[in-house]
Amino acid sequence: MRPASAIHTPALDRMRLLEQEARLRPVRRMAEALLVAGIVGVGVAASAPTATVGAVVLVLLASALDGQAQRSAAPDGWLVVQELLTLAAVCWLIGATGGLASPALLLLAPGAAIAGARRQGGPLAVSLLVVVVGAGAACALATEGPALADTYGAAVAAAATIVAVALVASHLAHAERGVRADAVLDPLTGLLNRGALDARMIELRGQAELDDLPLAIVLSDLDALAQINAVHGTAIGDGVLVGAAEAMRRSLRTFELLYRLGGDEFLLILPGATTAEAARLAERLRDAVATARPHGVDVTASFGVAGGKGGRLQFGALLAEADVALYEAKSSGGDTVRTADGGGSASDAGPVPQPV
Most buried among 109, 132, 262, 289, using CB within 10 Å? Predict the structure, then answer.
C-alpha cells in the first residue's frame, strides 16, 4: 500500500501546488523586491541603464502572472513562464555587466531556490539545466574567448552554488509537502479526509455566496461491508474498500474531489451542480461500484444527495439532509440513490454525464 504522500492525481497535484504557492507567495514577493533592488544596484554600478530597466520590467511581468496561475487548470505552465522571465532578466543583466565577473550572477540564487521549492527529480534537473545553460550563454557572450579559460573556476563555483541552493530548497519543500499530504489524505484509500474538508467548505460557501451558484453533496456508504469482513477477513475487506473508492474516483472528473469521512462512508462535493445533476452523477458512481468487484467480491453502495444555493448554503444542514437520504437508500435494500427531496434512483433522471 502506498503512503498518502506518494499518491498523485491531477486534481490533487494542482491543489498541492496552489496551496504551496499560497504559502510561498509572501516570501516570494519579498524575494522579488530584493531581486529588483539587486538588479538596480548592479545596473547602476555598471552603468547599464537599458539592461537594468529591461530586467526590472521582465521581473515585474513575471510577478504579474500570479493571477493566471491561480485561475488556470494547469498552473505549472504559468509558473514555468514566470521562472523563464526572471531567468531572462538576470541573464540579460549578466551579459551587460561583465559575464562571469558580474555580481549579477548572485541574483540567480533566488530563482534556483524557487525552482527547487516547486519541483524535484527530473523536472528540477531540467530547470537547473536551463538556468545553467542560460547563464553560461550570457557569460560567454559577455566574455572574450581567451578570457574564458581564466574564469573557469568562477563558472564552476557559480554552477555549484545554483545547484546546491535548488537541491536544499527541493528537499525541504518535499518534506513539507509530505507532512501536509499525510495530514489531509486518507492513508488507506488516498482520498482526501476530514482534515481537508473544513477549509474546502469555507472556500466553496464563500464562492457560492458571491456568485449565487448551486452546490450539491453526495454521501455514500458501502452496503454490507461488515458482512464482507466477517466472511473474507478484514484484509480482503480493506481491499474491497480501496477498490470501491478507486472505482468511484475513476468515474469522476479531475476537479470533482471525493472525501473519505471514515469507515466506509464517502462524501463528494459538487460546486455548481444542482441536486438533479448530482443524483445523475451518483447513479454513475453506484454503477461503477457495482461492476468493480474488487478482489472478486460483489459489493454495492448506497447514495444520498442534497443541494442548496447561494447564501442559504449551510454545510451542516446539507450533510444532515444527505444523511437522511442515504438512510432511506440503505433501508430500501441498498445499491440505490435517494435525494433529500424524496426522489428515487437517478437512473431515469436523464443521461449520465461522462468523465473527461
Answer: 289
DSSP assigned state of 185: B
Q: Angle at CA 118, nearest 5°, toward 115 and 124?
A: 55
Q: Which three cell numbers stand for residue 269?
A: 462535493
Q: Mean pLDDT, the chain, as a whole number? A: 80
Q: Which residues contact 347 (CB under 8 A, 6 or more apart)?
A: 283, 337
Element spanning 108, H or E: helix 108-118
Residue the block writes with cell 566574455: 143
Report the alpha-carbon distance of residue 265 to residue 252 in Å, rounded: 17
Domain residue spans of the chain? 4-184, 194-348
Instruction: Provide DSSP, 297-331.
Output: ---EEEEEEEEEEGGG--HHHHHHHHHHHHHHHHH
Sheet containing 300-309: give its strands across: 258-262, 265-271, 214-223, 300-309, 337-339
Q: Is the domain covering 194-348 a CATH 3.40.1390.10 domain?
A: no
Distance CA 5, CA 14 (A): 14
Q: What is the CA radius of gyration of the chain?
A: 27
Residue type, 31: A
The pLDDT tens digits for 131-183 are: 888 888 888 787 665 555 566 677 777 888 888 888 888 777 766 655 554 55
The pLDDT value recorded for residue 312 is 64
Geometric angle at alpha carbon 346, from 342 and 350, rounded to 5°:
125
Q: How far apart are CA 58 and CA 51, in angstroms?
A: 10
Structure confidence by residue, pLDDT tens digits, 90-131:
999 988 988 888 888 888 888 888 888 778 788 888 888 888
239-278: burial string, b at 16+ Cβ within 10 Å, e else = bbbbbbbbbbbebbeeebbbbbbeebebbbbbbebebbbb
Distance CA 175, CA 198 (A): 24
CB 173 within 8 A of CB 117: yes
Spatial distance between the Cα atoms of 96 and 317, rounded to a whole number of angstroms = 64
